[in-house]
Amino acid sequence: MMKPMLAAALLALATTGAALADGGMTVPLPDTSGLSADEARALITELAQVNVITSNCPAYPVSDAEWTLIAGTGDKLAAQLGLDASAYDKQFYGPAFQLLDDPGACDRIGPRAQPLIARLKAMGGGTTPLSRSQ
Q: What is the DSSP string of 67-112?
């Protein structure tokens, strides 16, 4: 599971339009303000699943910047939906981690990572780290 301090830091940063990785990297996050609650929940579900799978299935790695975009967008959506870190974990990461019990989950969900990252970029997100001054 995500470390509580990291989850809190990402949730706080998510509202600023940038996300912070463990190493201190920030990336621009997509504009999710136009999503309905149902669209936001569908996207946050996919983000949590892809995050868990790419973090636990060696055949589907993502870069630190891509991970920051995925995790930061999920945190931004959680804030947008009014979820605290506990509700976010319970509703989205709990079920995503249960996927690891399914031997086919890596190969079923892993290939969705790059199209998801492309979608987030098309929505205004990015994987080019921002300078610390922003």
A: HHHHHHHHHHHHHHTT--HHHHIIIIIHHHHHGGGSTTHHHHHGGG
Structure tokens at 56: 């636990």
Give the integer Cα–Cα distance in Å for 74 and 114: 16
DSSP-derived secondary structure letter, 60? S
Burial of 29 (0-12, 13-18, 19+ CB in 10 A): buried
CA dist., res. 60 & res. 131, Å (int): 28
**Beta bridge partner(s), residue 78:** none
Distance (Å, rounded) from C-alpha 97 to C-alpha 89? Answer: 10
Rounded to whole angstroms, how far apart are CA atoms 128 and 44? 22
Provide the token pair at 83. 């979820």
What pTM, to 2 d.p., does this model score?
Answer: 0.81
Give per-residue pLDDT as tens, 60-114: 999 999 999 999 999 999 999 999 999 999 999 999 999 999 999 999 999 999 9
